Amino acid sequence: MTFDRRTDFVTFRTALAAVVATGGILLGASAPAMAQEALEELREQGFARIAIANEPPYTAVNPDGTVAGAGPDLARAVFKKLGVEDVVASVSEYGAMIPGLQAGRFDAVTAGLFMKPQRCEAVAYSQPDLCDAEALAVPKGNPLNFQSYEDIAAHPTAKVGAPGGGTEERLALEAGVPRDRVIVVPDGQSGIKMLQDGRIDAYSLPVLSIGDLLKKANDPNLEMVAPVKGAPIYCAGAAFSKDNTELRDAYDKVLAEMKESGEFAEIIEPYGFSAEAAKQVTREELCTASN
Amino acid sequence: MEWSWSFVWEILPTLLEGVKVTIIATLLGSALALVVGLFVALARRSDNPFLSRGTGFLAEFIRGTPLLVQLYFLFYILPDLGLTLSPLVAGTIGLGLHYGTYTAEVYRAGIENVSRGQWEAAKACNLTTPQAWRHIILPQAIPPMIPALANYFIAMFKETPLLSAITVLELMNQARSVANFNYRYLEPMTLVGVFFLVISIISVIGLRALERRFGRLG
Asked: A222 in helix, strand or coil?
């Protein structure tokens, strides 16, 4: 067999061009179709992939591995009405949820991700579902007298724990607490443990989450400060990828019907959330709020 | 997702803070591993069977369990026993103890590599045991240890991201934090990789130089 470098090269180049052209056609053709067919695909595969955080009562993984919490329960009900039988949940760090959504790892984030303008720019939110104020878990008697994140910033050495990429981490940093005094806590149990061990002076989560944790910890040496002064009531929504707004719109339609029929309240109120609070605000208001 | 240089410049100072902590943890961890390894190696050579077997078992135990599990013990469980270490101290001790059990093996191999005849010759020359160690055994044992020790320290360096699990703000933790706030992983994680690669390469060059220098003495 003779070896002809020139011919080989030409062949290779032609093949490469063909591959690139085909790829281009495939991508070009499938991109707009994908969004329209997203719901159809979910119906066919029988489940939607959701991101959760294991932060009761927002999201919870039961000891037997099943997923509960207001966020997943609501998502399960909405998807069911959309013809998608079930949801499959992945536990994720808050900070990893939006990149995961953008990378197509999840179809929706239903972890109680509070709406803030920066997040609204990154994802397509449903209308509000779970609303809550912020709280601090502190040692009994609140010895450092923390009422706000600014109080923590003003203290020379106090450390505050918060979930990584969560709203509370950002609020603490925005209030001026230095980076090395905002301790990223991997999960609720660790946060309570670190507070008990004196590694942190306060642990910040939404009111209902801190309430749930303190009830479980059942430690008379801890108490809750709520609501944190200067931090407004936030509302979360289900978050979808920006290029999947059709799915979001379909979700919104069902959510609105459920709010109307009272099913929405039936699902979230046992967890302690106020359905009325979620009905009184809109995504548009929350996404343009100044804080 | 497109690469953004302006984002790189924005996050660089934060990541460099993390690099500093990563280097500190590696240096302290290595120093501790050197000391721990020496004690473990000497204890295992001891004539006292409780000391030698006990140390052997302990070393096997530490080598046989994951560093991450050990870090959780040091960080979350020691406080229950009344000892609350700061995250960096707990992390450094974790690294030092874990790698100390490996460096002990390096010491052991290095010492055993010096032939018995050398001990006998030292005795014949009327050298005391400490003199024999200092003038005869260690000068021959140490140079061959350096490459193996260096490999462990570089391995330790690359395991420092585990410290992010116990809230140490090292490079990986800083990178994740900036990624969390900007919803971008591309630049922070790429930079983490680049920093680790660059520091590894520099360390390898430095350690090779050290090896050549001590190699000549031996």
From this structure: strand
